[in-house]
Amino acid sequence: MTDDSAAIAGYWDAAASTFEDEPDHGLRSAPTRAAWARLLDAWMPSGSVDVLDLGCGTGSLSLPVSSTMRPRV
Measuring CA to CA, which residue among 57, 43, 50 is closest to residue 71? Predict the structure, then answer.
């Protein structure tokens, strides 16, 4: 690991325990969750699709999407 990548990893490792404490990172507000659910529902294609969760942070938006799909690993 380079010095830069070690510094970046260290930053995010230190922030990880409180990351969801930032406003709406964890979608804790019911109105915010409802608004995202409406948007995600409108954006998701109908029918059977594959969705790749890659670099999606803590998954606060991936979880609502996955609740409407059958996960495949």
Answer: 50
Q: What is the pTM of this model?
A: 0.57
Q: Is the dihedral of CA 17, 39, 41, 33 positive or negative?
A: positive
Residue of 12, 14, 26, 21 whose CA lies nearest to 62: 26
Rounded distance, CA 3 to CA 29, Å?
Answer: 38
Tens-digit pLDDT string for the chain (73 aa): 678 999 999 998 998 888 777 766 667 788 888 888 888 888 887 777 777 777 767 777 887 777 766 656 5
